[in-house]
């Protein structure tokens, strides 16, 4: 029985006639277009079937012994007639005849022993028992027989499913050995047909693994051929009904068609129609067609349908069509890829929406005339890609007119000129650089004769190009260099490929000038010297630049003000002038208050902008004979010469403070900054430049300590204060080296039960012959000098040592509280040191470590907060010391890892009689508890204070009411009691 198969049969449609009352042109064109669409559908379907049949026959014959002599024939089964080419007649030794002839005419020419077998196969095809006919047989004289091979396949069927037309080919295998070369050429042509086929074609093995693809398939799949080989075609093409595989009853020569989706990593799912055939050798051949493109092709005129479709699918250039209004009606994939748009984003929209301003102007100037002329060639236009970049394109277009000469649509091809344009621009830039660089350039050929010079060469030497081209550089010789100089130059040039050094040459007017010259050798691909390029500059200009750099060395690069070196020189000269002429000299040191905050928050560019603005204000505030300098960072200095009265300096200082504090807009922010000014006077305060600067500096620091945004004149007490500061600093250094510190411990008690629950470690400085100093007397100096880091590390280790000792003596769980400085938290490695000490503490219940920080520490850099979070995660408690005296916000307090609030003694003092303190204290307790924190009150000195705190549910307390700070052994006794 013949195999069941689905067949598509073209339907005949009569063309519509013109109505009796006469249709309009539009209606008639619509009807004709409908006919064309129907005919196009028929032609496309016929094309598919023809491609499949030819593919199967060609694949079958590819495995046989091909010869150059080959012919094709069509067998019309119903009539039993054959239509064959001349080659078929010659192979059967028959006279060629035009038109159709009976099949029997060819069969009768076959040797009798073969004819019966051939007739049986033909009869089976005619009866529909098989779709394929294949046989070998002999024809011609007995003494010179021909060996022929024939193959046929049903190409068309009648309405009842019986065969209608069989397409076949006949080959002469007799001359195989003499036609091998022809076979090779034929295989090459077939491979070219496969490679360059308009439709994507995929060849797989019997398991569906890709063995070959053509260029169109690579383009469609978006990958190189090498990346596709060996992969299953179902990665890209999948039929939901079969999973992408062949049906069970598929056999060679019978195509299997389905619609599915194309999936690649570079594009979204694309609907496609796939027709797969099993070749005689078991391989599969899949022809893929984009259904979307086929549907759009129906809008084109019938006479251009095939050509436009091929161009649309395979053209390496961009392609689009516009209607009479200039709107997109078609765009090919290449152009879409170039522009970065999906097709739906372009169709129906005017082309000017996707053109730059220049492109719109070109379109507007040319489109109307193009609609008249119908042709446009080599027009450069600028398109805008979706990402905003420009696509430079070369556009060629032709118009489509209807039968009345009216413009219907345009068809345009475009080529991406972006790389070419960039290359041209690079060449132009190179030419511009060559012409406009400040260095002179000479290009010479391999013989040393000059071929080109630039404008800088003309400017430096005075020679015009026509004066030197064709000559050698020897014409510029100054005579100052001997033969050995040039010999060394050429030896180095040939050995290294380049040379540079100082050369004296002579200009057009005979002047000798020093040049710094670099010469390079250019070689071709064979390594042979092709050119020499010499680049030189006039060293005299360089020396002038060096002089300018020396001058700039005495100016601040940011503000243009004199720098520290120049200012020191002017102070020296001004002091000498003041002493010589008996005049007064004022020196002011200015430092901007909290400038670091602006740098940290807005960035250094904003800080630089602010410094320039302040520098301008300072210059505007003083006389022209005075000097404003920037010494570095946010530090400025002003030298005021010939001061008639000290009140003049006072008024100037007040003027400067007011000027600096005026709001200034920086980086889009309105900022207000203040300054602290120190003033010293010569000869009253100092007669040496260094001493005068130091006096003004001390006065400035006194102004900062006095509250900032003010000025202070130097006094002798400032020197004494400075000496005290340095004395304290030196004493702290010795104390740290010699171990002159000690810790005392003040117990902390649970207010309700009176039970000791912790201690606070407090440092004391033991000074020889003097009472021990409290932290308030030396901690500030330690922080300003950085000694706090070493002192804090000692406190940490000593306190943890005592806590471990107490535990070894049988003391129950006690919490040890230590005070921390912001500088310690910022110090590298401090967090690790605390964690290491904490890890060595006993792990018994109640033993722990609590770090106390002031409210100010909660307002600083994020790294401080991060350090506190690390401590909290390790189980180290965090307490806010002296709470209420700082400026922490409830918002920051809520988000920080704070466990304990310590109420400052200033709020505890006098309660409950002091109503303000009582209200503040109760509010702190309530707020802290609402945030889940423990509350400790400091400075409890009486029972009334304790009672009030207990009534308001304060957790713990410390103070003289319970115990003073004690030595370690005394504190241990109290804790045990």
Describe the structure.
With 977 residues, this protein is an alpha+beta fold. Helix content is 40%, strand content 26%. The chain has 32 helices and 37 strands. The strands form seven sheets. An eight-stranded mixed beta barrel has the order 30-31-32-33-34-35-36-37, surrounded by four helices. Helix 18 (595-602) runs antiparallel to helix 19, helix 19 (604-621) packs antiparallel against helix 20 (646-660) and helix 24 (788-808) runs parallel beside helix 26. The N and C termini lie far apart (113 Å).
Radius of gyration: 50 Å
Strand order of the largest sheet: 30-31-32-33-34-35-36-37
Computed structural class? alpha+beta
Q: Total strand count, please?
A: 37
Inertia-based shape: elongated
The residue-averaged pLDDT reads: 83
Range of helix content: 25-40%
* Percent range for β-strand residues: 25-35%
Q: What composes the largest sheet?
A: 8 strands, mixed, barrel
Helix count from the secondary structure assignment: 32
Which residues form runs of ≥5 with pLDDT under 50? 1-23, 61-68
User: What is the terminal-to-terminal distance?
Assistant: 113 Å
